[in-house]
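How it folds:
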Amino acid sequence: MLSKEDYLMIREKVKRGAFLKDIAADLGVHPRTVSRALRRQGAPIGKRPAARRGILDPYKGLVDHLLAEGVWNGVVIWRELQERGYRGGISILRDYIHPKRVLRKSRATVRFETKPGQQMQGDWGEVWTEIAGRRRMKVHFSVSTLSFSRRFHFWAAEREDAEHIYEGIIRAFEYFGGSTAEVLVDNAAALVISDGRGRRFNPRFVDLADHYGFTMRACRPYRARTKGKDERMVGYTRHHFFVRYRSFESFAHLNQLAEQWLREEADRRFHGTVKEVVAERFAREAPYLIPLPGRRYDTSYLEHRVVAWDGYIDVRGNRYSVPDDYCGQPVVLRISLDDELRIFAGEQMVALHRLRPATEGWVTVPSHHRKLWARALRVQARDLSVYEGVASCNS
């Protein structure tokens, strides 16, 4: 703040023709400060007005309390404040927390080692790469890691929905030659449902667990360390496999290269934590895995339709034929992840198709509509005198 003496010096220098920026430089202030003093014709009077209250100010006490309780995750704190009425952004909150991080006590991490065959951890990652000539395509990939041996499997797909998440788990079991006693996953909606009753597992995930005989476990929200072994392998896959291989003919080609890379490189690496070659450590774990069931779990999409009067159903923008005995009846569709369409009436499969784009036209099996064509082409036999009578009336 300028003093009275400062103002007098400003006024004197202005009379001598000095520039405002030079006067400001001598006083160590901004030129606008000098300009305001001249307009005011004196030094500032009284105290500086109180700073405007910030949007975060009413919540700083709560933030400090959470920090003292050991909660340092900005997103978690931000959501807690939102529940209390905070309408500000997370950047303001992070700016407030950042200088306080020097006060954070370091947390000692106790490494939890599991027994052979006890646990598999599952997670998903994303990467942009070239598939079938498309230079920029987002690829989702599942990574499943055995907690004891650190052997892992990954599988790439076009999307990360429930069906693909379940498929990734199953393919990992098949790669390892058995399932584990428990599977640790994150809190994706395909696996864990959060509602008014709390957190519970998705019913279809429960069905999958029952089929393969494992116990479901979900890490606590915002606790990435719980699933650290697997999350590290997501980065390992992204920065090793997808750097070495940067172009693929198809997803089938990508996954073929993936299994080759896993066996030839990932399985043969020396793991720095367990101080052992992964493949050799897995050899001791393999006998403890649970044998796979005789029937593979069906991860197909499940949908319901009613067969139209013309013997077709609509699926993903195209039409597919159904035997004409089922016109007007409800049917169940199962669409595999490789686009095979199976149509069921009750427990019986009544039609099988391969999905095609609408530009290729409707998909028809001629034998499905024999009765419909027979009814359409049937002509009632009439005496020729009927047609002669019609002709005479028109003449």
User: Anything to note?
Assistant: The chain has 13 helices and 16 strands. The CA atoms of residues 55 and 88 lie 6 Å apart. Confidence is low (pLDDT under 50) at residues 222-228.
